[in-house]
Specification:
mainly alpha; 2 domains; homodimer; DNA-binding; Arc Repressor Mutant, subunit A
DNA sequence: TAAAAAAATGACAACTTGTCATATAGAAAA
DNA sequence: TTTTCTATATGACAAGTTGTCATTTTTTTA
């Protein structure tokens, strides 16, 4: 979380820093990013940076939390369009993220994030779907989704299904960003895996 | 990959370095690890380190590749015990890994790895199950697994099922290591997710 | 035993990072 | 409008890091 001092800054100065940070996080992943580069690019003195943020993780997660919140909003709207169809919604979300990857300024930034998707980053990404502080939010999601055709007996199972869908989607995204797989191939693979999840791995005899 | 010079070293000197590295990777995750600490602990001059390894990633993956190879061997033996039952085997593997986590020297080392499980680490872990250079190995796995009761129509689907099972297992492991969840609770959660995967998310109407 | 190749060594330049004493600006009080 | 107090800005600095490379030492080869 940025310190209050940062929030008191003018929008312009805030953006100056944000842009410099995004540029650095596009160049290299978080753990290789250099605060020196960010302040040089933003043209602010070193001491000021530490007046605004704890460290580079702090500014990184400030950016990323915003990004993942946007993805979540997108997901909510996609679910509505699909009348609560969980599977169709994930396929659409997947495609939307792939398309945004092809937008000019995003490519390296997104790639650096996904190829270094560790616990903390994944948790930030996922918590906007349903966690602790957002518990009420999970209910919102739960209300939007059509669970009629889902093979579940409790809300807990619904939670685990979502968890699995998300991790499978993330894994597919990582794979795409790592191998620069064309969109249509990525879509085919992801759809195949979603189908497997739908029908189940086990064939009762 | 270590340089030839390292492999020419006596086993004792190799272990000296390996142990120092493992100690450092137990203290902090890879990206925070310091070569200075490793060489100080091993009592070798700085230049020597670079004679043996490219950088800290190099020695990290030398260790981790060995670790994940051991896990794979374990997995193979577990499958045999379970007569090729994919689901039972994953549950057993999950439990084995949890138990090894409770062994003294391992705890922090394993935790640091799983909480920073990025693409490269996951790929190293996974490749020993079935990838490119080990393609023949996937066939071995494929031969061991009992696919009679699996809901698949091709070897490709089998590959995707394995991929999903692994990523779900990893996600559960990460969760356990992050929250210090007791083994029995972890087992319950993982079993529940495996059951969901078995029966499928979609209820045909 | 002399020459050539391989390995060991540690000082060094070129970076990092986070801190802190000091300077400056802004707001509140007198 | 001064004075006082508080918040912010600043950049030099200590303490650390990394990878390199000229030299020395050891081992092989001829």
């Amino acid at each position: 979380m940025p310190k209050p001092t940062f929030l008191n800054l003018s929008k312009e100065k805030q953006e100056l820093l944000i842009n410099a940070a995004k540029k650095e996080f596009s160049r290299v992943p978080l753990h290789e990013a250099s605060i020196s580069n960010i302040i040089k690019d933003a043209g602010i003195p070193r001491g000021s940076f530490y007046q605004y943020f704890e460290d580079k993780e702090d500014i990184f997660f400030f950016l990323f939390d915003e990004d993942s919140r946007r993805v979540n909003e997108l997901f909510i709207s996609i679910i509505k369009i699909n009348n609560g169809d969980l599977f169709a919604s994930f396929v659409d979300l997947f495609k939307s993220i792939l398309i945004s990857f092809d937008e000019p300024g995003n490519r390296q930034y997104i790639k650096n994030i996904f190829l270094n998707m560790n616990y903390k980053i994944e948790k930030t990404f996922t918590k906007n779907f349903f966690e602790e502080n957002v518990k009420s939010h999970f209910s919102e999601l739960n209300g939007l989704l059509n669970s009629e055709n889902l093979n579940i007996t409790s809300e807990e199972e619904m939670f685990h299904i979502l968890k699995i869908m998300i991790v499978v989607m993330i894994q597919n995204l990582v794979h795409v960003f790592a191998t620069e797989l064309p969109i249509h191939e990525a879509m085919a693979t992801f759809s195949l895996e979603i189908d497997l999840l739908k029908k189940g791995f086990y064939k009762g005899t």
